[in-house]
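Quick one: structure for this chain?
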Amino acid sequence: MKEILYLNGKLIPRTQAKLSPFNFGFLYGYGVFETMRAYNGSVFRLDSHLARLHAAAKTLGIANELSAFDLEKACLDVLKANKLSNARLRLTLTLGEGDIIPSPDTCSGITVFIDGRKLTPIPSKPYRMGYKAILSSSRRNSRSPLSRLKSTSYLENFLARQEAKDAGVDETVFLNERGFVCEGSRTNIFLMSCQMLITPSIESGALPGITRDVVLELAKSLGITTLVKQAELGELFTASEAFLTSSTIEVMPLTRLDNKPVGSGKPGPVTKLIMSSYHKLVADKAGK
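Got it. Here's what it folds into:
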């Protein structure tokens, strides 16, 4: 079966998809993206992902051009065209083709690209054992507008992920320039301290994650006290438990940091409760 992509308003075979080498997403990383997860043919929190994309497009100055595309329909069309049920969707938006000089005024129009792939879920063992992480050797700049965007300028994240790979762990945790806990290279962070579920604020440089928002909603419905703030590194090291979130990994326990156990070194009770509640919510929304 041929893989079908969405490119600038059309569904086309992958072999026919072509972009100019002068696309500003390629030349300068002038673009943003969303990674979404589909369950039973339905994209979870699609409206939230598209709202975040539109907000990012506004920051980039290309929101007006984006309004010409029906992105909700496009995402669902990609799933249907590829007969995908449980899938990973990537929606990429760039400024489009321009001149070799770094001037957005030379670009003729935006590029919208959507790809869908069958998603093979992570095995159950990591969820039972938890992820291991290290602190990144670099710092996030909380004052940069890029910290609030899923930018195609992704090199910093790739280098952090390579750090994790070289260290034989699963994730890298960023601190910001002031030493506060920020986020993982591909995840948001939650920790339990003083009987409160804490997550770093957006002002700390953390991405406004879609799964992060879902977890905050779930915690409230479960009667768990939450606190969004600038989290001290010491709070993470002394937390009774911690976990990571993203659209693709959902809720993942964090059980070791810099070769030290987080809490008991095993998934904690609040983590397990959030994990089960998240799975139930996804199943209900997907009509399983």
